[in-house]
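Here's a chain:
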Amino acid sequence: MDQVDLIWKNGEFVPWEQAQTHVLSHGLHYGTGVFEGIRCYETERGPAIFRHADHLSRLEKSAQLYYLELPYSGEQIRQATHELLTRNGLRSAYIRPLAYRGYGSLGLYAKDAPIDVIVAAFPWGAYLGEESKNGGIRAKVSSWRRISPGGSIPHAKASGSYLNSILAKTESHNSGYDEAILLDERGFVCEGSGENIFVVRDGEIVTPPHVASILDGINRKSVIQIARDLGYTVVERDVARAELYLAEEVFLTGTAAELVPVREIDDHPLGEGKPGEITTHVQAKFEDALYGRAEEYLEWLDFVEAPAGVDAASKVSS
């Protein structure tokens, strides 16, 4: 991880090394936190955060689902993020807002524990490697199933839920693969360890529905709209495991991963064993949207505007 100067915490800009939390913080012990992964891209019109409002709205909804009362509004966090990027001199970055129960109570019912909120921003390249977006990746269907809506909330981007993803990711890595694909509790395809999944069959793009325990990905929604705008049929339905092996193309979407083709699953090559035509078509338009080259999707970009008097030379606020 590339260190920068400042992190925003509870309304203040603090030096990176001083952005600390108590060892008895509730979120550290029980995973009682919610977060987002967001990216800022360098565009011809300046730095722009992709679908910032949608990410912050999901953060607020995730917090509500887990009874976390955020002490800051989405707009306050948005403004803090703009200022943080400016103070750190970042024109492209990965952004991590996090809200969690802090130090004050250690029981399971911990309404007295304060809600701490941080925003960090730092440089981060392609999550699955620089070659992943061009050459595609190898994936493995995990033996671990995606968390069930009967015992947790898959729709919330909650810190504790990612223990499930860590198990799947570790298993796939230890077996020599780049990424894991999880099935839901019913045995249908759900998603990757940190990405949504799309399958191309007979020229049609298919993706698992909300009832398959997916996280409602922001990039997933973006790609669905882009694909339909390009004239493709996109269907949200249950996907059988065998369809992964029978597919002409498969690709993953996520903020960290962006859009990554999958060339092989469980040692079954897909199509010609390289990114397919539909995948590359959608990927090219998606990247145009990310970098502000697609006029029709400029509304998705939140161009960074620093508050008056704040520039890259500004450090800790008084």
Summary: DSSP finds eight helices and 17 strands in the chain. The chain has a mean pLDDT of 96. Residues 33 and 100 are 4 Å apart (CA to CA).
